Amino acid sequence: MAKRYRCQAIKSNSRPCTASFHRASGLERHQQKHHQSQGITFVHCDPATGARRRSIFESIAATLLPSSRRNSRATAEPTVPPLHASPFAAPSGGVYPPPVQIPAGLVHAQVPPLAPGARNNISNWNDVLRSSSANARTVPTYEVKQSRRVPSQQRGASWIRYQSKQRFEEVLSPILERWGVGVQHWGTCVLIPEAWRFLEPIELVALLSTDVNLPLALAQGSRACYSYDDHATSFARAKAWYSTWPRRGCDLDNFVGTEGQDDYKPMDASHLCHHKHCIIHIVYEAADVNQDRARCQERAQFLRRERRAIPDHCTQHQPPCLLQHAALTTLEACHIQASVFCLAKNLPPLQRKPCPRRYPYPTFESALPCTFSSVSVIPDDLVSETVDDGLRGRPNLNCTFCPPHHLRGYASIIALWAHIVHHHQAEKKKVRLQEVCRTAAAWQEYWDASGGRKFNPTAAKLEQTRVPGFSWRDVLDWKLRP
Fold first, then answer.
1. Backbone CA torsion sign across 76, 80, 83, 89
2. Of 32, 43, 74, 186, whose CB neighbour count within 10 A is largest?
3. What dihedral do alpha carbons 73, 76, 78, 80 form, nearest 10°?
């Protein structure tokens, strides 16, 4: 039976209080609040002799504590001050006033004795604390990667701040809007390899209308990269990182690839559509689950070759794989992306292309709707306005020496010049020098109009290209890295 502590102090109407409590502390607060004016003290007195008895807390301790611990305590009760100040507190000399006469039968608490052989509560709590401490997992220890920019700091420490998430959203949103969709778009894939990140979509659409096999180089192309502060990763992995917020410190250690973190599974950016260049259908999950999803893509491709119905989602993973997207080839996904762009920007629709030779499937899907799936777009997800992302008026930094199927846009004029120097050595030096001067003049005009920085290494090189006598030897002296 549970212990109850009952107050039997005499109220103003000459009746006992009879309020009961589960804990002695509750009884104490009750008496302080409601019976202080009556001079009630927490000292028991014998009604017959008036001798001082043990206080309520001493009685509880005598019942709960083992006898060995009770005997070890001091027994000089008359010299022990009361637990709380009362009108009957002892003076500075340590001598108490005469005992208070309390009516017979008035007790502050009724503490039933423990059953024979039962363990006391304090020992039980000590056992619980010792057991929980012994079974608790220790914090794993491992070496963290240090920043190259700030050697005494952990790498990627700024990636856990909300400002980094806002910065990524400011980069992602213009890229999607240039292709005619918003950040909430989910119906179709948006493939952005590194080579296409700084190209205008209208240029790619024009090339797709003339060369149906243009996107084939995507399968071997590198993925788009994203860097912030002192850490760089793929664009898809960055989006997967910011898909759930906020992040923990151990998540950051896993994200930057800390060695020796054996207690945590490595995490990957998984593409539910099974297109590695897509920046839409991405989730952040364990690497083993990401690898297991490859079976769903094989199943979707098999069903399409056999001309069977392809379900929308798989049943093996959560979130499920998008099987109808996985059944599309990279070439088809690019043509569908271009058709969605034309639809959003109110451009003439692209004509459906015939099936290429030796194509692995009986049909070639180059526009919506598809003949075998329900892949579609929501009109509210389309964006028709022109996006001011800071690239308006910026010249296209494309290499004129590369073939159309290797079309690539560069983020800076220095990167384009380095590509011309190291990857087109078969071209004549005079021709390459003319291309360097042409792109330098276009970039200088863009800088003058946009207020670019005038005092940095790039500005010095631009000024050097306009000096009479500028030669290919001067370009080599720049020592551009490949």
1. positive
2. 43
3. -50
Task: Indicate the pairing of strand 267-271 with strand 44-45.
Answer: unpaired
Give the separation between CA 52 and CA 46, rounded to whole angstroms: 7
Asked whether the beta carbons of 366 and 358 are under 8 A apart, the reply is: no
Tell me what the mean pLDDT of segment 312-326 comes to: 95
Query: In terms of pTM, does the model score above 0.70?
Result: no
pLDDT tens-digit map of 365-393: 988 888 888 888 888 888 887 655 555 56
Q: Compute the distance between CA of residue 237 and CA of residue 266 in angstroms, rounded to an integer.
A: 13
238 phi, psi to nearest 5 deg: -65, -40
Q: Output the six-digit token pair for 169.
A: 């959203």
Separation CA 275–CA 279 (nearest Å): 9
> With b meaning 16 or more CB within 10 Å and e meaning fewer, what string describes 364-376?
bbbbbebebbebe
Amino acid at site 70: R
DSSP per-residue string spanning 302-342: HHHHTT----SB-SSSSSPPBHHHHTS-HHHHHHHHHHHHH
Instruction: Please report, for the chain, how many H helices and E strands are present, in that order.
Output: 16, 8
